[in-house]
Amino acid sequence: MRGAVAVTSTPGEFELLEGADLLATYRFNTMTAEHHFCGNCGIYTHHKRRSNPNQLGVNVACLEGVSPFDFREIKVYDGSRHPADNADHKTYLAGTLTFTPAV
Question: I need a surface site. Which of 6, 52, 64, 69 has the fewest CB within 10 A?
């Protein structure tokens, strides 16, 4: 999910309105997480989380009426150190992205 702003949902609250026939899915490592993306253009759409398979991360750029530019600050987490890989289930922050609109 690097490079995308995501919000959390659950499978029961998530409804794919169009493009299901174009979705491609990949899994790796523990095979728990399911990463979905458009097989036509390649954009990441959503994923089932490894840390909580009952949650989905959804790319806000794929939501009607929402833009990544609606968020002034975005926390960026260290994707190479997964919470499930350490005893404390610690999440590591890599930094914060800030968006300042032009005048």
Answer: 64
